[in-house]
Amino acid sequence: MAPVNLPWDLEEKILSGLPPLYLVRFRTVSQHWNALLNETRFIKNHLARVRPQIIFLTESKIYSIDIELGGGRVDPTIEVREVPSDFPYQATDLTHTTITTCDGFLFRDFWKQGVVIWNPWLRQVGWIEYVDKEFHFCGVGYDSSKRYKILGYFNCLRTVSNTYQVGYKKVAIYECASHALKFLDVPFKQWPNMAPLSLNGNLYWVTSNLEDTHHHEYVIRSFDFSSEMFRTFCLLPCRKNHSRDELLLAVYKRDGFSLLKQCNVTGEIEIWVTKNKIDEEEIEWINLMTFPTSNLPKLINKLCGVSYFIYDKTLIMCCGDEETGAACIYIVREDMCKKIQIDLGIVRFSHCVYLPNFISVPSEFRPLRV
């Protein structure tokens, strides 16, 4: 039987819905497919159709979790893969280790050593070693010229008298291409207490509103790497009713935000999402879902952090089990609350990422194969 050639637009549609792991293998099928996978248009179409993944870190390895939600009577399933991660550094203190994303790449900060950037699907790694090892990593972004930069700070001492010194923090930017440090003359206030989100080159995080004297109102703060300025981005759609309520920010549909609020007293969870893209002038929030009686754990002060994303009116969340420390995936929607425990060691850190794309690691990072 002679092979059937599908219309090119149908082939492209089929390929754009496949996981990255398969697409990397299909590069060798033909020059035409290889060229297609490098096109910006195809990459955007592919990223628009795939779900985020959960990345979590144990004592010695990094794993990715792909969640298949099923549908109807089909139960959700997960697929766990080890992420290639043969880095030039060894983590000396996992409590200070951060994994984050920027522009489709994964970044891992090694405290007092440097930063690694990698694309596990292309098996490419780049790294930057800090010139000054006292630099404290905060987050990664880029300016209008697509030059990658790292926001951080230094712990400093100011001499007040011959017998007395006062500690303070000095904000700085590490420019990846030039390996130069630039100090910013800005006050160290409303600083993120966890790794901020990197979206469209800028950093975003939740913090208290200094203008609210009752300390129940919260805002999203941002840092723009082009203007090198901090600003209040928008007011959150809900307040804390109790001091130990939890507010978690995540990326929604690639160009918006979602907000998870959990009441520490009742355990009730509210999910809010932005109606429009974050680059528009006014931000409008929608109360998407509420789970009044869920079986989710209390999320306050989770040592390994909490990561989540919203997909098809479903909450997918990862955090460590309170008793064993193992990574647990919670899948919650109107008719279901399912917990899946992953027994691969104690989880030290988790992060929700949109799948890395097929772009090579930027040249300003020192290349290293894995």
Automatic annotation (TrEMBL):
Superkingdom: Eukaryota
Classification via InterPro entries: F-box-assoc_dom_typ1, F-box-assoc_interact_dom, F-box-like_dom_sf, F-box_dom, SCF_F-box_component
SUPFAM superfamilies: F-box domain
Domain F-box: 1-46
NCBIfam families: F_box_assoc_1
Name recorded for this polypeptide: F-box domain-containing protein
Lineage: Eukaryota, Viridiplantae, Streptophyta, Embryophyta, Tracheophyta
